[in-house]
Write a structure and sequence with these properties.
Blueprint lengths: L1 H17 L3 H22 L19 H6 L1 H10 L5 H14 L2 H9 L3 H17 L18
């Protein structure tokens, strides 16, 4: 009896989780595209519309964002070619799927006031508590909007 109730509850949660109004989904996708474009432009040092391991710099990115992007930067090295915005977008979508909730949230908020406020508070908290970045990250996996 208890097993059936758990399965029903799980199915109910899945139904509720997957329902997003079309307009809301469109707004989320627009925001994600804007964030990916912003990151691409910051990585494209020579502003030629392509990024490669030779012409890519993470100096303008916050350390947390650069750390999240490290698999893409590694992919750039291995590919030995430049990525267009479209190729970068595809790589970002694949990367996003593998991220935990905390990193997805950081990427989604990147460039917003919420991102800046979050790090102002987080940096103050870390200094007060003497924590490193990795010590303060929640381990919650899963929940979060997909790209």
């Amino acid at each position: 009896m208890g097993e059936l109730k758990r399965e029903e509850e799980k199915a109910r949660r899945e139904r509720n989780k997957s329902f997003v109004q079309p307009k809301s989904r469109e707004m989320l996708n627009d925001k994600k595209l804007a964030v990916i474009e912003k990151i691409f432009c910051e990585l494209d040092d020579d502003s030629d519309g392509f990024i490669s391991c030779q012409s890519c710099s993470t100096e303008g990115l916050p350390e947390e964002i650069a750390k999240i992007l490290s698999p893409i930067l590694e992919e750039l090295k291995e590919a030995s070619k430049a990525f267009s915005m479209e190729e970068f977008f595809e790589s970002m979508c694949r990367l996003y799927e593998s991220l935990d909730f905390y990193d997805k949230d950081l990427l989604f908020k990147y460039g917003s006031k919420a991102f800046n406020d979050q790090f102002s508070f987080a940096e103050s908290f870390r200094v007060i508590c003497g924590l490193r970045v990795a010590d303060n990250q929640p381990q919650d996996q899963g929940a979060g909007e997909e790209f």
